[in-house]
């Protein structure tokens, strides 16, 4: 490999590949490093890829990319032990162009995306770990890899090295993440016949459905479960803050088994065969955890910069857009031949002006709030289930009597006031 | 009722290209022995890489998913955590 590039991108996930693609397309000489055997081999996602942000990079990608199913229905289940209150939106506009989102299997999708960057002229080198940034006179000038004679140089280095974000940490851009800034997700891919999937999820051939699971899916710990339809597999998983697992001393794979065996979930997956088990961290620190994202000769994108909206399970879209914005900034920096922090800081401004900065700001206190006040998941979701059961069970009691019973179930006057306050507080952190 | 799948059965579904040497190191074994009654890494590690064997922590790095939880979650910051050498470690085929 030549010794010096215009740009080195560390990590061929959605953020890094998006950046490398845009740079290569603009004629920038870019090296894309990936530590795995192939792009995607280290990457895990529940599986929802958003059309808009991908199309900002490759228009009509859905005509050739390896996608699983376009999602036409999104369900939200508030679960108790043997009941659930379900909200759903199904819209056939999501089933045709331009689509809203798709399920994907990352090992397949990431490989395809990286190949597209290579077609644009990026040099992809796999099986290579970036051990550290090479810093000279306070500027990042390259990376040290684990290959023999593995130092490579560039005008600018983009850190797209994922949630662990070791390189930005080494540069002092952030401290080690706390256990309440990351969620540990475990998931399984379950093989199941196409037709059975479509029958069970009420889908026309080729359409997809996502189900998010709250409450008893995580035994009341802050987190969510999910069940997504792929072509002939299902992705089922559960993620909770690492701090929650530590506090409650729960084994993540046992929690996954609990979800799989939950009476509200079991019928969906019955008869399926697990074919892969995966674990990964999700950065869920939100707005307050975003590290320094631009320095002299260096930018941080995607998970490495904590760009995940945990409330709306959006991450891959933020990764792609951050990669694209980093590329735009680098192209501008190249025109001025200025890779200083003040020039590259345009990336941070673009990021904060975009939906990424705006959405993360909107929910800046949400995760912390629900973590600090566990009653939402532990108490109010079961309460919601009991209220629905009471109201919809026809047993001769009048509806007024039923409303009284539900009201009594809300607890003492003090508890009712607390509930009212909690509803207002929840509104404040979500609005 | 489906039979609960054990972690060993789950791990059997995963492809690993294990390196010959570990990328995970307990820095001070004495801390696990004397200061850490919970040995919480043996609970939250999603691959059950960490196993307490009477007086020492056994680290089955070959089955590591490289998630990073142990580095972040160890209450004594007692785990040195690196990526396996390029091309080694876990190889996800699907998700």
TrEMBL record, chain A:
InterPro entries: FAD/NAD-bd_sf (IPR036188), FixC-like (IPR039651), FixC-like_C (IPR059103). PROSITE patterns: PROKAR_LIPOPROTEIN. GO terms for molecular function: oxidoreductase activity. It comes from the Bacteria. Its cofactor is FAD. The keyword ATP-binding does not apply. Residues 367-431 form the FixC-like C-terminal domain. SUPFAM superfamilies: FAD-linked reductases, C-terminal domain, FAD/NAD(P)-binding domain. Keywords: FAD, Flavoprotein, Oxidoreductase. Pfam families: ETF-QO_FixC_C, FAD_oxidored. The keyword Flavoprotein applies. Gene3D superfamilies: FAD/NAD(P)-binding domain. Belongs to the ETF-QO/FixC family. This is Electron transfer flavoprotein-quinone oxidoreductase. It comes from Thermolongibacillus altinsuensis.
TrEMBL record, chain B:
The keyword tRNA processing does not apply. It comes from Thermolongibacillus altinsuensis. InterPro entries: 4Fe4S_Fe-S-bd, 4Fe4S_Fe_S_CS, ETF-QO/FixX_C, Fd_FixX. Keywords: Electron transport, Iron, Iron-sulfur, Metal-binding, Nitrogen fixation, Transport. Transmembrane segments: none annotated. Pfam families: Fer4_ETF_QO (PF05187). Gene3D superfamilies: 3.30.70.20. PANTHER family: FERREDOXIN-LIKE (PTHR43082), FERREDOXIN-LIKE PROTEIN YDIT (PTHR43082:SF3). This is Ferredoxin-like protein. GO terms for molecular function: iron ion binding; iron-sulfur cluster binding. To ferredoxins from P.putida and C.tartarivorum, ferredoxin I from A.vinelandii, ferredoxin II from D.desulfuricans. Could be a 3Fe-4S cluster-containing protein. Residues 55-84 form the 4Fe-4S ferredoxin-type domain.
């Amino acid at each position: 490999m030549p010794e010096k590039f215009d740009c080195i991108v560390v990590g061929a996930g959605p953020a890094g590949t998006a950046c490398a693609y845009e740079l290569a397309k603009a004629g920038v000489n870019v090296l894309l490093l990936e530590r795995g055997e192939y792009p995607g081999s280290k990457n895990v996602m529940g599986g929802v890829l958003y059309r808009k942000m991908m199309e900002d990079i490759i228009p009509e990608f859905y005509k050739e990319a390896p996608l699983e199913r376009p999602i036409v229905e999104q369900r939200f289940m508030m679960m108790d032990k043997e009941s659930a209150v379900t909200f759903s939106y199904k819209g056939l506009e999501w089933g045709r162009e331009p689509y809203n989102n798709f399920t994907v299997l990352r090992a397949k999708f990431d490989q395809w995306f990286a190949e597209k960057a290579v077609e644009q002229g990026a040099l992809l080198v796999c099986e290579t770990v970036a051990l550290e940034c090479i810093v000279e006179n306070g500027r990042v000038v390259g990376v040290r890899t684990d290959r023999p004679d593995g130092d490579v140089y560039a005008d600018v280095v983009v850190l797209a090295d994922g949630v662990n974000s070791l390189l930005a940490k080494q540069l002092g851009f952030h401290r080690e993440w706390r256990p309440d800034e990351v969620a540990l997700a475990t998931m399984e891919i379950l093989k199941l016949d196409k037709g059975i999937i479509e029958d069970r999820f009420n889908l026309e051939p080729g359409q997809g459905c996502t189900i998010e699971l709250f409450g008893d899916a995580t035994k009341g710990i802050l987190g969510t479960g999910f069940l997504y339809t792929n072509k002939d597999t299902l992705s089922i998983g559960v993620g909770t803050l690492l701090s929650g697992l530590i506090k409650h001393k729960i084994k993540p794979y046992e929690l996954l088994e609990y979800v799989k065996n939950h009476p509200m979930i079991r019928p969906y997956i019955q008869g399926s065969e697990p074919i892969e088990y995966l674990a990964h961290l999700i950065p869920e620190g939100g707005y307050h955890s975003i590290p320094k994202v631009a320095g002299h000769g260096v930018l941080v994108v995607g998970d490495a910069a904590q760009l995940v909206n945990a409330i709306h399970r959006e991450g891959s879209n933020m990764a792609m857009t951050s990669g694209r914005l980093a590329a735009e900034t680098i192209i501008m920096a190249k025109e001025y031949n200025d890779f200083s922090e003040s020039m590259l800081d345009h990336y941070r401004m673009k990021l904060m002006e975009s939906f990424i900065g705006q959405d993360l700001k909107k929910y800046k206190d949400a995760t912390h709030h629900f973590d600090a006040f566990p009653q939402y998941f532990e108490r109010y979701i079961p309460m919601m289930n009991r209220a629905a059961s009471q109201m919809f069970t026809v047993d001769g009691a009048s509806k007024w009597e039923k409303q009284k019973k539900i009201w009594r179930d809300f607890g003492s006057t003090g508890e009712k006031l607390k509930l009212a306050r909690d509803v207002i507080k929840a509104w404040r952190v979500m609005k | 009722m489906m039979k609960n799948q054990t972690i060993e059965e789950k791990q059997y579904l995963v492809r690993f290209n294990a390196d010959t040497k570990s990328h995970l190191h307990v820095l001070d074994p004495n801390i696990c022995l004397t200061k850490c009654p919970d040995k919480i890494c043996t609970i939250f590690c999603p691959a059950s890489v960490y196993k307490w064997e009477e007086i020492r922590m056994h680290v089955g790095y070959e089955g590591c998913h490289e998630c990073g939880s142990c580095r972040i979650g160890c209450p004594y910051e007692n785990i040195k955590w690196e990526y396996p050498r390029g091309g080694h470690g876990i190889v996800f085929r699907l998700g």
